[in-house]
Design goal:
By secondary structure, the chain is mostly helical. It is built from 82 helices and 16 strands.
Length: 1477
């Protein structure tokens, strides 16, 4: 079984090989994905990940946590609905006294009921916009939820609450969310509903006011609705809730404390505005101009009929819009739809009245939209309607625009523009279509299933390249296709059996491609693909069982043998497929079969609460404890999940170990208590469950109930003698658990029962620590009154005082101090409570601690002293308080050294002044900058520099990043500080590190004023530096013209100095495009042809960077136009590479040699072709360039073809290029149809080969370009072309062909596969194989990799091609190369269907040769138990000795397949001693 892949660990690939010709991503080779390191997101906050295709992905941990907690984002839905509201409508709601009272209240719920179509959703969007605009302050929040019956699977209560949290959270997701993420990520679990609710409540508590608006609660399933509303009721005491729904749902059954009701209906004025708005943008406006009275009549008729329903008004207006004349409109006013049902019926009549094509499109659209398992995207619907059942590829000419689709649906379908999702116009439309489904759309599920299965079985699908990084480029329907089996289950199974079985055979391949990376937005995550422990390989039977394809599973079982270890019964039980379970048991399924991770069918059925299946399984098995040795028992999981009836049944059937431990909860009782299942707790206690059994996550059942807040269960357990002071579990004690979770009622119960308040242990150390950490002040007070020890140490912070100080809870700190808390007790992290208060910036608490005698000079902790912490945080008031209490200003801390260094680094002038007044040492050595003065100077703190100099700071001290104080200030451009230092006598020529001298630092950074000051102070202009050498080089490199002039004035004379990146000053200036400096250097005698550096010469540098004016200057000054060397080889090649046509012409006009071929870029023409610069190619061709026929990359034509530059191909051919041999192969491999056509008009030899392929036909066949294969065959391409050396081997009669290892065959001067037929067979291109056979391809022709095409197709698992080749006379028993025979190839690869076909066609079951010696040994070695069984039944010689492992038994033994070993021994295999050994 395969392990889970962590969706938030990025696997960074190593260096990939060259991209395949058919791969648009350009990723290939074995290096690509999967070879690099892993980056776990909890290790980083933000990152930029470079993608293999050259792009970048910005990654932020915050976004990852948000998406993990809630992938639901309602912001776009809100924006889209807001656009639907007619301006001026809905304002009555904002003015309604009930709404205004709710808006101004705190913790009230507004229950808004309204009839269908009353505009509730649009009003909700208006309220959200209104509140969001009114309460813009950051401490207030507005969040919304739009429920949709189509999205129930994704809109779980947990995700919805998380979605609300997502809308309310700020930039910082908070420690609680980060903790949840880290905790669950390690375990591979999702947060519970309780945890998400606590997270939301925690965030609401941080805001001053919160409004939560929920729309369409009536569309939410009743069972989940109750759960969601109960949690909302709990939240409602801290936030204002507004809930819209239909009138039939009452609020009485829910526990909302303060609730107001409001009836929602479309007001007459809103209907009037809506009608006028709709008329304005329709043809009705023209009719009204003809007869103004018509507008009054429309208002009267519609307003009087709609009864507060916008939706009915919409349909009535739609009905009127269809009328073409004034008379028709007037007549239609008397026939308006009476209600929504009537409106939908008329809409269908309008559809039926359309042309046959439009009617077909409309009905197909309604079928898809109404029956989709989730809302379809626009592109998904377009592809779905374009797919033609029975075809093998998607016809790009069969697509409709979404506008065309919607236009024929009579207003029943709409598009969500923001989300690009297609929906029915209203929930009532879904209900109407469901009602008429049997009459109007009886084949809906079959039609959808057929379309999806056709799409999934298209030729070339799935494409392996889809598993690359470009996960968002999958064909649009791939994501929705995961529901194909949900649509196929039932009657469609029989009608679609053939194509359904074909897909089931390919499903494993689909899963590997689509779910290669869970970051893929289209990955399959619905049943059956979301089974938590999916098999290593998806078999057809397993998928059928998981998807409830009863007819299909039965058909497969009737055709194939049943194996005792098949686990289909388990997956069917997991999904609750009762009929499937019954059928499988009837076919002999082993009721006690165990899965590796999930135990037995009984256990998984119990876990899912599938009562009926549990009954069926119990009837078939007398042992309910099977599988409990390694797995959670059925009884345990049923008790934890609260399935009372199942618990009762299992106990009756003999699940007697009621106190069994060894799982998450330690005991059945603890599991039931942790989930609040009161009835099961009572049942277990009645059956003798030990109330004090210990173990598991919570230690005891009592702690579990206390931690989760189930007061009734706590009471029951205490009455049954539960030990109230037992230690253990996550919280240490029961009392600590109740306190940590804030369950005050349970806390009081436990105190009354004598709980010990001073027991130590658990997550927080003591109960007092837990209460303080959670800020339960009343509980803190009660604990102190009960004698809780205030000075006992906890875990993270030490004492309770430190915890209270860290949280800034002044009231709690005061209580603890009054009870004698030690103000100077050692802290864990910060050394003392005082340092904690200082670090957190709690000024009032600092004052309280100092009044209680806190020692200001205690050292240690993160900052060393409290004073250093205060300075580091910039807390001026606290610094003043500490200094007044005698804090030592010269003591050294840990991170920064002295407090003065910290203050200087922070640039806090006021604090520096205070410290200097208290005698801080100004010349103490620093850590980063060596001296305080150097630090202040480097950071530009002018005032502080002045203060330090006044206090006697040394200006010439050396060390730190720049070594020299003056150099640091010069590099940073701090002019005033440089002036101050020079004024204090700083040495202008003192040497440093980064730039050697201050002058070079100033020059490199372009600080002209500082350069001038240093030169005036005698700075040496000719001192050699590091990166740039001289000052002049630095100035030139940075383009500082004025500084260059100053340096020349001061005696910088060597203009031809070499030895840096650009080789010379002139080349540097030319590369930078600084015309003025280039001219200045030439005036000063710079050598225009000096060579060296990146570009070789200044001319090539100017050309490469596209500086036309400088090119002209250099040429005018005698630059050598054909100088070789540098990055591009010559100036002309540089121009060709960059496509600079103006410069190219300039160089050619000045006699540049266009035929020079030295250097990396070969010739100028080749360079221009390779870069796709059409105009540059044209210019060069006009100069009569000679073509390159020798070079490594091939001819110019080959380069153009390989990149698909069709226009350049035509230009080269017209210019006389005739080296087409590799070009035709390249075009065929790349799929460039038009280029192939052009080349064929020029190329006399269609069968000429290239470097990779032996012929163009082979190239096209391998790459799957059907159209090109067709073109080549029409041009009489030879389908039998093979590599010459292989032909020589065959003709010469050599007998050692099988000895040529495929991996060592690179020396053979042949194509990749030796023949187009084998190439197509290996790559699985069925249509091309058929075409080649029709044109006479030798079905038994030999190739390199597999020998013959049949063996190739068998090894690669292409069932359809195998059948095709056999039908055309392929030798089923031909013995060839690596696998010996086709049967051995299929057996080794595990292709059971192909093995069956070959055997039916007479394949020799004992054929020898090849890697494994026999098919049986191949299947045994690779662990294919089903195929081993098939071969044995066909009479395979079980004891034949041959092949890599000697025998089938030895192969299975060595490769570790014990089940196959047992099977072989049962069949009478000799060699039991080998197994014993």
């Amino acid at each position: 079984m395969s392990a889970h892949t962590d969706p938030y660990t990025f696997i960074l690939g190593g260096q990939g090989g060259p991209g395949g010709t058919g791969n648009p991503q350009g990723i290939g080779g074995s290096g690509g994905i999967g070879e690099g390191g892993r980056v776990a997101i909890d290790n980083i906050g933000n990152a930029t990940i470079n993608m293999p295709n050259g792009g970048e992905v910005m990654f932020r941990q915050r976004d990852a946590i948000l998406d993990w907690l809630s992938p639901i984002n309602f912001f776009q839905r809100q924006a889209d609905i807001s656009q639907l509201r007619a301006k001026g409508t809905g304002e009555w709601l904002l003015a309604d006294p009930v709404f205004k009272e709710w808006e101004s209240s705190f913790g009230e719920t507004l229950w808004c009921h309204g009839i269908p179509g009353a505009g509730k959703t649009v009003l909700v969007s208006m309220v959200v916009d209104y509140l969001g605009t009114k309460f813009k302050e950051r401490e207030m929040g507005v969040a919304c939820v739009y429920l949709n019956h189509k999205e129930v699977d994704s809109q779980t209560p947990s995700r919805l609450l998380a979605g609300l949290w997502r809308q309310l959270v700020g930039r910082d997701v908070g420690s609680l969310a980060q903790s949840l993420y880290s905790q669950h990520r390690e375990k591979g679990t999702a947060p519970s509903l309780e945890e998400v609710a606590n997270l939301l409540i925690s965030r609401i508590a941080e805001l001053s006011r919160v409004f939560i608006i929920i729309d369409a609660m009536d569309e939410y399933p009743e069972s989940q609705r109750y759960i969601l509303l109960e949690y909302l009721a709990e939240i409602g005491s801290q936030a204002n809730l507004m809930i819209t729904l239909r009138p039939h749902i009452s609020s009485e059954q829910y526990s909302f404390q303060s609730l107001k009701t409001l009836n929602i209906c479309a007001k007459p004025e809103d209907i009037r505005i809506y009608i006028d708005t709709q008329i304005k943008f329709s043809a009705l406006e023209r009719r009204i101009k003809e007869k103004p009275q018509l507008q009054h009549d429309i208002h009267a008729k519609i307003s009087g009929a709609v009864d507060g329903m916008f939706l009915l008004a919409k349909f009535q207006l739609e009905f009127l819009r269809t009328k073409r004349t004034l008379k028709a409109v007037q007549e239609a006013l008397n026939k308006l739809p009476k209600d929504l049902s009537d409106s939908y019926a008329i809409a269908l009549q309008r559809i039926d009245a359309q042309s046959e094509d439009d009617r077909k499109i409309a009905y197909s659209t309604l079928i898809w939209v109404a029956n989709a398992k989730r809302p379809l995207t626009v592109e998904e619907l377009r592809v779905a309607l374009a797919v033609e059942p029975g075809t093998h590829e998607l016809d790009e000419e069969n697509f409709l625009t979404i506008g065309e689709i919607v236009s024929v649906c009579a207003g029943l379908v709409m598009v969500d523009e923001k989300l690009q999702v297609v929906r029915l116009v209203h929930y009532t439309a879904q209900q109407y279509l469901d009602k008429i489904h049997a009459e109007k759309f009886p084949q809906a599920q079959t039609e959808i299933a057929h379309t999806l299965l056709t799409f999934l079985t298209f030729d070339g699908y799935p494409n392996p390249t889809w598993a690359s990084w470009k996960l968002w480029n999958l064909p649009p329907l791939v994501g929705y296709s995961q529901y194909c089996l949900a649509h196929a289950a039932g009657p469609p199974e029989i009608q679609l059996r053939e194509i359904l079985l074909r897909f089931l055979g390919q499903a494993d391949h689909w899963m590997k491609v689509v779910n290669h990376n869970l970051l893929n937005r289209d990955h399959w995550c619905s049943p059956p693909w979301n089974f938590p422990y999916h098999p290593k390989k998806y078999s057809a039977l397993w998928i059928a069982a998981a998807a409830n394809l009863v007819q299909t599973a039965e058909f497969i079982l009737n055709r194939e043998p049943w194996l005792s270890k098949n686990i289909e019964l388990i997956v069917a039980s997991h999904y609750g497929h009762t009929e499937m379970v019954t059928m499988l048991l009837g076919k002999g399924a082993n009721v006690n079969v165990e899965g590796v991770e999930y135990g037995t069918a009984l256990q998984t059925a119990a876990a899912g609460g599938h009562m009926e299946i549990v009954c069926i399984l119990l009837e078939k098995s007398t042992n309910v404890t099977v599988g409990e040795e390694y797995h959670v028992s059925a009884l345990q999981v049923a008790a934890a999940q609260g399935y009372t009836e199942i618990v009762c049944m299992l106990l009756e059937k003999g699940a007697v170990d009621i106190n069994r431990g060894g799982w998450k909860y330690g005991s059945l009782l603890q599991g039931a208590a942790a989930h609040g299942h009161t009835e099961i707790v009572s049942m277990l206690l009645e059956k003798g469950a030990d109330v004090n059994v210990e173990g598991g996550e919570y230690g005891t059942a009592l702690q579990a109930a206390a931690a989760e807040g189930y007061a009734e269960i706590v009471g029951i357990l205490l009455d049954m003698g539960a030990n109230i002071n037992v230690e253990g579990g996550e919280y240490g004690t029961v009392l600590q658990a109740a306190v940590a979770k804030g369950h005050t009622e349970i806390f009081s119960m436990l105190l009354e029962k004598g709980a010990n308040v001073n027991v130590e242990g658990g997550k927080y150390g003591t109960v007092l620590h837990a209460a303080v950490a959670k800020d339960h002040r009343e509980i803190v007070r009660m604990l102190l009154e009960r004698g809780a020890d205030v000075n006992v140490e906890g875990l993270e912070y030490g004492t309770a005082l430190e915890v209270a100080v860290a949280q800034g809870c002044t009231e709690t700190v005061s209580m603890l101090l009054e009870k004698g808390a030690n103000v100077n007790a050692n802290s864990r992290k910060y050394r003392t409570a005082l340092q904690v208060a200082v670090n957190k910036g709690h000024t009032v608490i600092v004052s309280m601690l100092l009044e209680k005698g806190a020692n200001v000079n205690i050292g240690g902790g993160k900052y060393g002293t409290a004073l250093q912490a205060a300075v580091a945080k910039g807390c001026r008031e606290i610094v003043r308080m500490l200094l007044e209490k005698g804090a030592d200003v010269n003591v050294e801390g840990l991170e920064y050294g002295t407090v003065l260094e910290v203050a200087v680094a922070q640039g806090c002038t006021e604090i520096v002044s205070m410290l200097l007044e208290k005698g801080a040492n100004v010349n103490v050595e620093g850590r980063k900058y060596r001296s305080l003065l150097q630090g202040a100077a480097a950071q530009g703190h002018t005032e502080i520099v002045s203060m330090l100099l006044e206090k006697g700071a040394d200006v010439d001290v050396q060390g730190g990043e720049y070594e020299s104080l003056l150099q640091g200030a010069a590099a940073q451009g701090h002019t005033k500080i440089v002036s101050m230092l020079l004024g204090k006598g700083a040495n202008a020529n003192v040497e440093g590190r980064a730039y050697v001298t201050a002058l070079q630092a100033a020059v490199a950074k372009g600080h002209g004023e500082i350069v001038k000051m240093l030169l005036e102070k005698g700075a040496d202009v000719n001192v050699q530096g590091q990166e740039y050498g001289t000052k002049l080089q630095a100035a030139v490199a940075k383009g500082h013209t004025e500084i260059v002039a100053m340096l020349f004035e001061k005696g910088a004379v060597n203009v031809n100095i070499a030895g840096w990146k650009y080789g010379s000053l002139l080349q540097g200036a030319a590369a930078q495009g600084n015309t003025e400096i280039v001219s200045k250097l030439l005036e000063k005698g710079a050598n225009v042809n000096i060579e060296g550096g990146e570009y070789g010469t200044a001319l090539q540098a100017a050309v490469a960077e596209g500086h036309t004016q400088i090119v002209g200057i250099l040429l005018d000054n005698g630059a050598s136009i054909n100088a070789e060397g540098g990055k591009y080889g010559s100036p002309l090649k540089a121009a060709a590479f960059q496509g600079c046509t103006e410069i190219l012409r300039m160089l050619l006009d000045n006699s540049a040699d266009a035929n020079a071929r030295e250097g990396v870029c070969r010739s100028a023409l080749w360079t221009a072709v390779n870069q796709g610069h059409i105009e540059a190619v044209c210019i060069l061709l006009k100069k009569g360039i000679k073509f390159d026929t020798e070079r490594e990359y091939g001819v110019e034509l080959h380069a153009a073809v390989s990149r698909g530059y069709m226009e350049i191909v035509s230009m080269l051919l017209n210019a006389g290029e005739r080296f087409y041999r590799t070009a035709l192969c390249a075009a065929a491999a790349r799929g460039s149809t038009e280029i192939v056509r052009i080349l064929l008009t020029k190329a006399p030899n269609i069968n000429a080969g290239g470097r990779k392929y032996e012929s163009a036909l082979q190239a096209a066949a391998d790459s799957g370009h059907t159209e090109i294969v067709h073109i080549l065959l029409e041009k009489d391409a030879d389908v039998t072309v093979e590599g010459q050396e292989l032909q020589d081997i065959i003709i010469g009669g050599q007998t050692n062909i099988p000895c040529i290892p495929i991996e060592d065959s690179s020396h053979i001067n042949a194509g990749k596969y030796e023949g187009a037929l084998q190439a197509a067979a290996i790559s699985g291109h069925t249509v091309i194989v058929s075409m080649l056979l029709k044109h006479g391809a030798d079905v038994n022709g030999r190739g390199l990799k597999y020998g013959r095409s049949l063996q190739a197709a068998a090894a690669e698992g292409h069932t359809e091609i195998v059948s095709l080749l056999l039908d055309k006379g392929a030798d089923v028993n031909a013995r060839e190369w690596k696998y010996g025979s086709s049967l051995q190839a299929a057996a080794s690869k595990g292709h059971a269907n192909i093995v069956s076909i070959l055997l039916d066609k007479g394949a020799n079951v004992n054929a020898g040769g090849g890697k494994y010696g026999s098919p049986l040994q191949a299947a045994a070695a690779e662990g294919h138990i089903k195929i081993v069984n098939m071969l044995l039944e066909e009479g395979a010689d079980i004891n034949v000795a041959a092949g890599q492992y000697g025998s089938a038994l030895q192969a299975a033994t060595i490769k570790g397949h014990p089940k196959i070993v047992v099977m072989l021994l049962q069949w009478g295999c000799q060699g039991l001693e080998a197994w014993d050994e």
